[in-house]
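Final paragraph of the annual report: two paired records, presented back to back.
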Amino acid sequence: MLHTLIQSPYKTNMSLLTSMLRKKDDFLALQDGVLIALTNSVFLDVIIFSSANLYVIKEDVYARGIINNISTNFILISYIHFVSLTLKNKTQMTW
């Protein structure tokens, strides 16, 4: 399953989101959702502990000027790779 976080993690039910993540799932943060990947995010440890594959859209990271503060646990990808993730995952959940 592909989980996409579009809004800020501070505006999302992160407890529910992280409880639904499974080891084989893909998690993608984009738009304001990229804030979850900040090294000082209160949600970082929980999302890493989920063992899901963690991705973040690099264009959104650069647009917010936070590239130097992104956790190395996240893989920076482009919107083109986002399309590949949607093709790979038949089921998807948007947060």
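The closing record of the year follows.
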Amino acid sequence: MAVQTPGDDHGPWLVVGLGNPGPRYADHRHNVGYRVADVLAERMGSRFRSHKSGRADVVEGRLAVPGPRVVLARPRCYMNESGGPVKALLAFYGIAPDHLVAVHDELDIGFGTLRIKFGGGDNGHNGLRSLRSSLGTGDFYRVRLGIGRPPGRTEVSDFVLSRYSAAETSLLPVQVVDAADAVVSLLTDGLERTQQRFNT
């Protein structure tokens, strides 16, 4: 299967910030994908609106001019159910999975670190597991924001569903903006150049 590299065409692309809906989860590590989506929506000069599917909020537009058309989305379901709404959006807009970018937290890289890649497994991430199950493939792009491993004997589930430390909170806006920049770079400059710039 030929991989469609961002920057080679003008879309459309689906960019999905993964997280859990509602104020209870807003500040959790697991919701950093939502934070990046919020920054991207601001850059697109629009607000999220409910999609007719009822299971996601979307913004449509462009992140750069010239640049591809983009559907920016936040699923309105829990993380482990993300695949259904994403599959529905891909079908509605006629977008192939290789034009999907998932933005999510990542346990296996340190806080403040970004990794951008195409394809792979789910690495225990419930959102990615749901996407791969619903789409029948893992061949989509990922912008991964490091949150690090939980300290001591803290359970992973408790760690991802907890707030950042005070020190992390002060640095988080920088990581979120960098991730938003990485999404724009991925869609306009392609994977290799984006990895060279952001895979620190």
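Residues 83 and 89 are 10 Å apart (CA to CA). This concludes the annual technical report; the extension proposal builds directly on these records.
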